Amino acid sequence: MKSGKKIAILGCLTVAAGTAACWHWMIRMPLKEFTRYALYMAVMDDEICRNELEGHLIGDDVITFPSKAETLQERYHLFLQMNRAKSRQQIQKEITEMEQRLQQSRQYIGQPKEQLEVEFSG
């Protein structure tokens, strides 16, 4: 009888440890928080690109972007896909880096536009 209790207790502990491990590895953060981070990153990325690139020339073509409504949805889905396997700490670190880059990109607002060189490898 004692060995039966030990086996039952050991089985319960194993299930509890497995559940905790699965929870930790599979569910990194609540979905609402994850999607909010992805949208925030998409908005920042869009603004960084617009600050740094819009109005510059590549060859004879001027770089222009579609409206934000058109670009944000694609960027949002891109960040959802890219951040799927990342932890909360990894995503927060990337957000901090993007916020710094956004601050740096604001120096380009109102600056004269220039010709950009693009190299194609093939």
Describe the structure.
With 122 residues, the protein is mainly α. The protein is 66% helix and 5% strand. The protein has 4 helices and 3 strands, in the order ααββααβ. It has helices spanning 2-26, 31-53, 68-82, 88-105, and strands spanning 57-58, 61-62, 115-116. Strands 2-1-3 form a 3-stranded mixed sheet, with no helix packed on it. Helix 2 (31-53) runs parallel beside helix 4 (88-105). The protein is rod-shaped. The N and C termini lie far apart (74 Å).
The low-pLDDT segments are none
The sequence of SSEs as H and E is HHEEHHE
The assigned structural class equals: mainly alpha
Report the helical percentage. Answer: 55-70%
Largest sheet: 3 strands, mixed
How many β-strand runs? 3
The dominant shape is rod-shaped
Number of helices: 4
Overall mean confidence score, pLDDT: 84
Question: How do the strands line up in the largest sheet?
Answer: 2-1-3
Content of β-strand: under 5%
Whole-angstrom Rg: 24 Å
Termini distance?
Answer: 74 Å
Short description:
The chain has helices at residues 2-26, 31-53, 68-82, 88-105, and strands at residues 57-58, 61-62, 115-116.
Fold blueprint:
Blueprint: H1 2-26, H2 31-53, E1 57-58, E2 61-62, H3 68-82, H4 88-105, E3 115-116
Parallel strand pairs: 1-3
Antiparallel strand pairs: 1-2
Helix pairs in contact: 2-3, 2-4
